[in-house]
């Protein structure tokens, strides 16, 4: 180079083309190096972590941690479900991809794209959070029509199952019990007939009313009939075919046993059965019963007749009116005064006590409910029982019954005396025998009540009787 400098200008111009070639090569190398550095820097700043060159073991560990963290984040929040199609679509951040979808990374745009796998039957799962859990629901497998059809089949299956259970239960019952038609057929072969209660009562009435039946057969028919008429419906059915009137007419029989068992049937039929009571009054039963009690009859017959009379009068004010009009109190007074009728006397006193308290309760109930003109109350007000008892001498008759030795009889007499106290107070104060009897009973029951207290009975039977006596004595002062 120094020689070239010292040479003339022509020499320098001549040598320039030869020195220019190395310069250009150096310049190109510098430019290429700068370009590579720029590319390396650009790629380093825009590279994806998924394509970074890392240690395989460290990369696997980091990938696992990243997926675990991503799964926990998905579990803690509700993700929007992306519904892919058969075309590539961009997946937005925070969107969940159904299982089985085809996912790729677009290297040109850096975005993830999703589409359904071609030819496969992929089901989309709808994930929703509920109590910290995600529920995958198939959103593409079934249409609304499919769901309706499935529900219809489910309901039909339940009905079929229920029907099968019913059939199984019916089959089990059939194994345990036989149909009534088969039983009737078998009984018919054995000459045994299955009858209803009404059919049995008709047969018994026909047997009793038949002239060819003996006395024992008639009594047996009445005895069996009494069992059936205890039921209210059967007693009312007795009216439907005229059986009640047949039994009422049997009270006119000359056979005491027929009267006794006819009254037994009537007493059972009258009990708390207003419809039968009304038919009995219209059929003349009250008169026939009073005639039997007023005439000489066996004690057993009068017991049953008195039972029928009590059943007819209780809770039936119209019958009580007719009883007073027909002289029923005189009939009972004569019955009580007969010798050997102490058992009947206690029953008569009990009947009078029931009739008195029944009327009192009806009046008290009407006063509490402020009903002044109900039909039943008007009927009770027409029953003048207490004045009739006073006029017929029942104040003295009832007091004389305290001499009975049985405690049960005394209890019923004391109850009746208590109800008659307001009506018979003047008579009782003048009755010295009653005062002595009450004083004697007071001393007797004081001793018995003391024994009860010693035994630890604070509310004993004899203490109640003593209380009734003390109340009477206080009322007489």
UniProtKB/TrEMBL annotation:
Domain (Nucleotide exchange factor Fes1): residue spans on this chain:
161-238
Keyword Transport included in the entry's annotation: yes
Looking up InterPro entries in the UniProt record yields:
ARM-like, ARM-type_fold, Hsp70_NEF-Inhibitors, Nucleotide_exch_fac_Fes1
Keywords annotated in UniProt: Endoplasmic reticulum, Glycoprotein, Protein transport, Signal, Translocation, Transport
Alphabetized Pfam families for the sequence: Fes1 (PF08609)
Name a single GO biological process.
protein transport
A GO molecular-function descriptor: adenyl-nucleotide exchange factor activity
Cellular component GO terms held in the UniProt record: endoplasmic reticulum lumen
Q: Which domain of life is it from?
A: Eukaryota
Indicate where this protein is primarily found.
endoplasmic reticulum
**Location in or out of the cell:** Endoplasmic reticulum lumen
User: Ribonucleoprotein as a keyword?
Assistant: no
This chain's function reads:
Required for protein translocation and folding in the endoplasmic reticulum (ER). Functions as a nucleotide exchange factor for the ER lumenal chaperone HSPA5.
- Self-association or partners: how does it assemble? Interacts with HSPA5.
Q: Which family does it belong to?
A: Belongs to the SIL1 family.
Protein name, as recorded: Nucleotide exchange factor SIL1
Gene name, Swiss-Prot/TrEMBL: SIL1
């Amino acid at each position: 180079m120094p020689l070239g400098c010292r040479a003339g200008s022509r020499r320098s111009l001549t040598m320039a083309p030869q020195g220019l070639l190395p310069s250009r090569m150096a310049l190109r190398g510098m430019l290429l190096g700068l370009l590579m550095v720029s590319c390396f820097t650009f790629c380093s700043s825009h590279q994806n972590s998924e394509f970074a060159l890392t240690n395989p073991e460290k990369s696997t560990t980091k990938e696992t941690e990243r997926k675990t963290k991503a799964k926990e984040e998905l579990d803690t929040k509700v993700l929007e479900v992306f519904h892919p199609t058969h075309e590539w679509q961009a997946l937005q951040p925070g969107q969940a991809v159904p299982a089985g979808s085809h996912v790729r990374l677009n290297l040109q745009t850096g975005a993830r794209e999703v589409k359904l796998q071609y030819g496969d039957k992929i089901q989309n799962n709808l994930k929703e959070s509920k109590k910290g859990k995600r529920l995958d629901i198939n959103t593409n497998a079934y249409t609304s029509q499919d769901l309706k059809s499935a529900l219809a089949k489910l309901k039909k299956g339940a009905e079929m199952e229920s029907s099968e259970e019913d059939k199984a239960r019916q089959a089990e019952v059939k194994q345990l019990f036989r149909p009534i038609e088969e039983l009737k057929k078998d009984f018919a072969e054995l000459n045994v007939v299955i009858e209803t209660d009404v059919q049995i009562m008709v047969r018994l009435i026909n047997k009793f009313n038949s002239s060819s039946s003996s006395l024992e057969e008639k009594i047996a028919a009445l005895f069996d009939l009494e069992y059936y008429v205890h039921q209210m419906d059967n007693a009312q059915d007795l009216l439907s075919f005229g059986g009640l009137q047949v039994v009422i007419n049997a009270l006119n029989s000359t056979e005491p046993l027929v009267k006794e068992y006819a009254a037994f049937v009537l007493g059972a039929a009258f009990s708390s059965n207003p419809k039968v009571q009304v038919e009995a009054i219209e059929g003349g039963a009250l008169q026939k019963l009073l005639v039997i009690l007023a005439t000489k009859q066996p004690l057993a017959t009068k017991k049953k007749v008195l039972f029928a009379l009590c059943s007819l009068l209780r809770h039936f004010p119209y019958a009580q009116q007719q009883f007073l009009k027909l002289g029923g109190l005189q009939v009972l007074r004569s019955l009580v005064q007969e010798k050997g009728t102490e058992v009947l006397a206690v029953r008569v006193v009990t009947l009078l006590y029931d009739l008195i308290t029944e009327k009192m309760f009806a009046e008290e109930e009407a006063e509490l409910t402020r009903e002044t003109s109900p039909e039943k109350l008007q009927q009770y007000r027409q029953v003048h029982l207490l004045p009739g008892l006073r006029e017929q001498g029942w104040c003295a008759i009832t007091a004389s019954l305290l001499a009975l030795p049985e405690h049960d009889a005394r209890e019923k007499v004391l109850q009746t005396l208590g109800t008659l106290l307001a009506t018979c107070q003047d008579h009782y104060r003048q009755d010295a025998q009653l005062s002595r009897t009450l004083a004697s009973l007071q001393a007797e029951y004081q001793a018995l009540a003391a024994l009860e207290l010693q035994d630890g009975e604070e509310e004993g039977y004899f203490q109640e009787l003593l209380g009734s006596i003390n109340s009477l004595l206080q009322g007489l002062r």
